[in-house]
Amino acid sequence: MTSSFPKKFEEVTLSTKPIFQGKIISLQVDTVRLPDGGESTREIVRHPGAVAVLAITPDDRMVVVEQYRKPLEKSQVEIPAGKLDGGEDPLTAAGRELEEETGYTAGSLRHVASFYTSPGFADEILHLYVAEQLVTGEAKPDEDEFLEMEAITLEEAQQYIREGRISDAKTILAVYAWHLYKLTGKFQ
Fold first, then answer.
1. Which of 1, 33, 137, 167 is geometrically suited to a Cys-Cys bond with 103, CB 3.0 to 4.6 A?
2. Which Pfam families does this UniProt record tie to the protein (predicted)?
3. 97 is catalytic
4. Which candidate in 11, 143, 145, 155 is catalytic?
């Protein structure tokens, strides 16, 4: 996502020190010149970007998956999502992730919003899509992915948020977008 706004408060990179290169993320420490002429360091996580899918079944339920999230040391209920593979088109990735995690394919995939997940330290951008006209199929999760799928009502999703079973930003945003759609006929 690029901005046409002026670069107010721009921090100019003076040097970059690579710290870690993993399968999904890399970590670097940048030395920057601040707008007042001073210097500081910034720890930055680089991420290839990701997609998430708000999949609505014909009987008006949201498709979610429950899986264990090691950084949180607990299971979470989330909408289907995954990282972009090497420059992959987000729309293509959304369809792929939906099918891999749930078995569903979508007759219609529409972009809802793109947003940065944690711009204070990471460049990850997440593209949210809504999937409709779902056709069932067989899930094909990655070999290291263990998850369980269910389809829940809006009221159940809101209850899961209150209980903390849904607590990630992308799924909460999807639930609010779905609620907005039910009230106005628009996702934004």
1. 137
2. NUDIX
3. no
4. 143
